[in-house]
Sequence to fold (704 residues):
Amino acid sequence: MKKINNSFIIAILFITSNFQLAKATHVAGADITYENVGVDSFLVTVNIFEDCGGAATLGNTITVRFSNTCGLPETNLTFNQTSVSEVSQLCGSEQLNSTCNGGTLPGMLQKVYQRIVVLDACNSWTITWGIANRNATINLDPPGNTYFFAVDATLNSALANDNSSPLFNGQPIPYVCANQLVNYSFGVSELDGDSLVYSFADPLGGSTANPIVLNYQPGYTSQQPIPGIVIDPTTGLITFTPTVLGGFVVVIIVQEFRNGILVGFVKRDIQFVVRSCVNNLPSIFGGEITNLSGDALQTGSYTLEICEGNSFNFDVVYADQDLTDTLTIFSNIASVLPGSVITNTGTNPLTVNISWTAPIGFNTQYNTFSIVTNDGGCPIPGIQSFVYNINLNQSTFISPSNATICINDGVQLNAFGGTSFTWYDLSGNQIIAGNQFSCNNCPNPIVNPSVSSSYIVESNLSSACFNRDTVVITIAALPTAASISANGPTSFCFGNTVILTGNIDGVWSNGDTTAAIAVASSGTYDVTNTNVCASSVSNQIVVTVFPQAITPIITQVGYNLETTAGYISYQWFSNNFPIPNETNLSFTPTASGDYYVLVMDSNGCQAQSAIYNFVGVGMFEGFESSHLIAVPNPSNNFITLQSKSNDHIEGILKVWSMSGGLMYKKSLIKGNQNKIDIEEWTNGLYMIELIGNTKTERFKFIKQ
Fold:
């Protein structure tokens, strides 16, 4: 069973003695706070204010005691120092002259010690730290002596295991002026929104084994540690006029209530140092709310009342009778009223403008912020505190404020702000409970409208704030299907693309979300549009990508060039130009040169062969006749030999194959043409030879 743990340090140190002794240290004040950082886990912080005029300083660790009345073990744990900063109430130019820096002006250090602890559920955890030396004071008995110093805090982790304590933000060890009216605020912020109650408490000291209440001198008590001092139980503002010089111990306790039940308290034990001043403090008669605009109601000089969702804007003016003083301010408003805006104008008088809009559902019960004015006097500036209380009244609202649902789906509405609720339609008719509205006069109906509908809730809140709210329930329509199209053919050869367009806020079937896609592979393509209720699919486009055509190969057979069979078309090229009418599987070149063939397969895809360098050889290379022709050339059945000038043709006519075979022979006498049947001959190149009386002529023709 876990009792108490720490997330940073594995070993738990049990110390039977009580508090560490550092007998020459002078502690002027301290407080213990805690912040919830997880289930049953708390970051505990001990703030210690050390007088630099003491003879020694606190070390890097302190021991903090955890006790309870739940029967769990009492444990002392070591806390590590996490920061040290000077908090001397000195003007900027005199900081280096404080006792913290070897000077003579009063100096004060704030030392912070922290550790995360895990606590079992218990309604009476008490966290205590103490040390042997308290600063000398006027009001403790006997006066001018030093005592043990102790401070404590409590936590009810059984009831509020997620609680974070109030935090102190005010000047820790304030120096005040004799015979001048003092307003002082501890600058408390409360992150959980619990309600707080302020009062004076007894100082602790005595034996470290058993801290006891210290006695006051006659004329002083825990409720009157300074004669005439008063504390506002709601805001924590302290007011008094000191008349005696010296240090006065004042302890306040801040009790934290959640729904009327005490969940813990924190204390701050500090000294007010009363001194004789030439400087006048900033005037306490000022700082009232003025120039109020917006929706808030002013209920006092420093108090407003506002409803959730409303806004305010107001000015406050601070002044100092020392006209050469320059006023500045410090405020904890940012942590109390998130989103507030504060701006300054002027220096003395100083005008501060404050504006804020209260968020809907801002459920904090503590909306008190302080503004501390500083007159910049040297060496010790004067300060005054002004506290403003913003009373936030709840308004009625619905969560969710609007909703989109699918047909036949339901959504639960939750009304807040009030204890009784009635639901109406937009016409003002009270809704009858049924299948589409589960209940009336309830805060959390389940609604299931068949069409988009609006509902109004009215609560029993005072009409000073909004006691009505409206919610719109929208029935989501099915998403519109896209219409997609292609910018060209959807069947094509490998290496090409087609652009598909038409996507609007949808997803292509290949996962793309762009308006258009370039498709280079086969598949079925569409677009899907989706909303909270359903999906719709566009028309489909089928893309077919044919494989690349097989590259043809040219081979030479005799004086013929042949290529791969199986294509639906052929086109032969010579020196990169197409050869007219050469569209067959084979081709007989008539001259040497570079040749290739372009083919097309049954899918319409083309391929080109490698270039073939043909070199013509044999007895017919280059023969041409000057006046004889054979027509047609090429031919596949008959050729006719005739004179270009229609002269007589005489002589011995021979036709030779490329291999040298005699294919035809005939004597010609006084004719001007001769027809030769070549239908049965093999395709290829042939030479015609005419041997006349005076010359012999030769030329070629092609049988195909």
Summary: The longest helix spans residues 333-336.
